[in-house]
Amino acid sequence: MFDFSFGELALLAVIALLVVGPEKLPELARTAGKWVGYFRRTVNNVRSEVEQQLLLDEMRKEAEKLKGYANEPLQEVEKFKASIEEPLLATEEPSTVSAESGSEVAEGEPEVTLPSGSSGPSRPQGQILH
Q1: Half-sphere exposure of 22 (CA within 13 A, CB side)
Q2: Where in the sequence does UniProt note compositional bias of the Low complexity kind (predicted)?
Q3: Which residues contact residue 114 at a Cβ distance below 8 angstroms, ignoring those fewer than 6 apart?
């Protein structure tokens, strides 16, 4: 971080010894060491938080890409579904429901009712179907 040569550090130590004195120099060195350690920890914490935020932003971008990739097949299916439904809806004739029987009757066709007790077309007795 800071480039100090050995000579510069020795000169700084001699000046501190002359200014502070030999009795208070060890206390000053401990205090300076604590502050330097605190400063380094703070810088490292800030650096790691910035790196985490950058990594988190990168992961969010990747997640958005993956969501886009996941939605592409769904959109294709929706397009295919719409392309199939359009012709079916266009060719489908409107129908009405008979109130009596509950069955669908196409417009323009007469409604056929069965006699009571009859459930539908019957086959002649004794005829075997293969």
Answers
A1: 0
A2: 97-130
A3: 120
Contact call for residues 83 and 75 (beta carbons, < 8 A): no
d(C-alpha 28, C-alpha 4), whole Å: 19
44 token code pair: 């490292």
CA distance 106 to 109: 6
Q: CA 23, CA 21: separation in Å to the nearest integer?
A: 6
Q: Report how far apart, in Å, the C-alpha atoms of 91 and of each of 67, 78, 103, 108, 109 are.
A: 37, 20, 21, 17, 18
129: which residues sit within 8 A by CB, 6+ positions away?
A: 123
Number of H helices, E strands in the chain: 2, 2
Classify 95 as helix, strand or coil.
Answer: strand
What are the backbone angles phi and psi of residue 84, rounded to the nearest 5°? -80, -40
The pLDDT tens digits for 12-67 are: 888 988 888 889 988 988 998 999 999 999 999 999 999 999 999 999 999 998 88
The SS3 of residue 126 is coil
